[in-house]
Amino acid sequence: MSTQPAVPKIVAAEFLGTFVLVFGGCGTAVLAGEHVGFAGVALAFGLTVLVMAYAVGHISGGHFNPAVTLGAAAGGRIAWKDTPVYIVTQVVAGVVAGAALLLVASGTDGFDAVKSGFASNGYDDRSPLGYSLLACLVIEVLLTAVFLWVILGTTDTRAPKGFAPLAIGLALTLIHLISIPVTNTSVNPARSIGVGLFAGGDAIGQLWLFIVAPVVGGLIAGFSYALLLGSDDAAELAEAMEA
């Protein structure tokens, strides 16, 4: 008998997880960034993934990110036919979280999402420290691949049980510590779209990079994981032959 959760439960889990990630991570940047700095924002993103992976990961797998979903499909962890419901849910949740954050942030006099940047991602003059398009492309592809390798590795049947959310949350924190100065860190198209749509024309014009690069990085990791490190099936077959 299949134990695959019903689609409405997957949608609910992915919506909640993605909403908390975008609202919590970007909310920290928008509402408290000047007080907590890069390290505080990085920790906020890591904590959102950690807590929500423990909360709803057992329902949907805890993707909260289209690049993770596509990487998981490329790695054989979910069926390709299941990816659209994940991705649509994640993007919608990101936009809803962005709208909720805008409502809160607008509660103080003088707030302007366009002028503030609204935690959006960018390259060239929209990069926090002015990094080029090429530098931003490389770091987003590379760090998304690293993120997926961590996810696929910690959820492998050969890995210690119960520690995946902790490792994944710490990995996302590390990724933000590295790349906030470069791109403001995406590695997640839903996160980028969720706030970018409210940050104005320049932010929207640069969104393509923060959709394409994470997807490419996720697919690279998904297709390469088994080739580099072996597969769950191989481990299970070896265990069965030893029994």
From TrEMBL:
Major place of residence: membrane
Membrane topology: Multi-pass membrane protein
KW Membrane (keyword) present: yes
Subcellular compartments: Membrane
Source organism superkingdom: Bacteria
InterPro entries attached to this UniProt entry: Aquaporin-like, Aquaporin_transptr, MIP, MIP_CS
UniProt keyword annotations, A-Z: Membrane, Transmembrane, Transmembrane helix, Transport
Segments traversing the membrane: 12-32, 38-56, 85-108, 128-151, 163-183, 203-228
UniProt cross-references to Pfam families, sorted A to Z: MIP
Similarity annotation: Belongs to the MIP/aquaporin (TC 1.A.8) family.
PANTHER family: AQUAPORIN NIP1-1-RELATED, AQUAPORIN NIP2-1
Listed name of the protein: Aquaporin Z
Native source organism of the sequence: Nocardioides humi
